[in-house]
Amino acid sequence: MSDPVTKLNEELKQEPELETGFDKAPPPPPVTTFGENNLPLALISDIDGTIAFMSMDDSGKPTRDFMDFSKSESDVPNQKVIGLIRAWYSLSESPTIYFVTNRTVAWRDVTVRWLIKFFPPSSYRWTLRMRPANDFVSSAAAVKEVHLVNEIVKKFSVNQVWEDDDDCILMYRSRGLMVLDAKETWPKS
Ligand SMILES: [Mg+2]
């Protein structure tokens, strides 16, 4: 009788070789222009806390008030989420990015100027949806749900959402959408 190690080696020799070759893997699914419901594809991203952070001064204090978007042009890009959006965009055929934000339309120009820096319209098709100027009471999630239900899902099949607000994440998920919680990409302090 052989010793246990020799025995194990003998047994291992008899194991069929694992098929690890990538040539055996099934082909990747084809990239298509259309998603479920035969609608063109869309990606949804929030802005504040998701793709944009307030810039900080040397002492670590924000350089603007959270609700003062007049200075938001100096916001710092969250490269992790921006990189993910760009990657998803490049993997989809003719997608549209919806930037859906709780900022009011009063801040449209400064917001567009910032977005253009990271998503130049020559390379990315996107649109911006904001809080109506006359709505001071609805929650952020309610505002975003109106955009989603009244417009986006009527025209598009949504592939992915990026969002940092818990209520908004819950709203999107309750609508059956896949959401990446952007808080998971925040720098660890
Ligand atoms: Mg946010």
Can you describe this structure?
By secondary structure, the protein is α/β, with parallel strands linked by helices. The chain has one domain (30-185): HAD superfamily/HAD-like (Rossmann fold), CATH 3.40.50. The chain is 32% helix and 18% strand. It is built from 5 helices and 7 strands. The protein has helices at residues 4-14, 79-91, 108-118, 140-155, 166-174, and strands at residues 41-45, 52-53, 76-77, 96-104, 126-131, 157-163, 179-181. A 5-stranded parallel sheet has the order 5-4-1-6-7, with helices on both faces. The structure holds magnesium ion.
Defining key terms:
Rossmann fold, binds magnesium ion, alpha/beta, single chain, two-stranded antiparallel ribbon, 5 helices, 189 residues, 5-stranded parallel beta sheet
Major sheet strand order: 5-4-1-6-7
Q: How much is the radius of gyration in Å?
A: 23 Å
State the helicity in percent bands: 25-40%
Query: In the CATH classification, which architecture applies?
Result: 3-Layer(aba) Sandwich
Bound molecules: magnesium ion
CATH level-3 fold name:
Rossmann fold
Specify the structural class.
Answer: alpha/beta
Give the integer mean of the pLDDT values: 91
N-to-C CA distance: 61 Å
Query: CATH homologous superfamily?
Result: HAD superfamily/HAD-like
What's the count of strands?
Answer: 7
Low-confidence stretches: none
Share of residues in strands: 15-25%
Q: Structurally, how many domains make up the residues?
A: 1
Largest sheet, in brief, is: 5 strands, parallel
What is the 3D shape? Answer: elongated
Secondary-structure element pattern, one letter each: HEEEHEHEHEHE
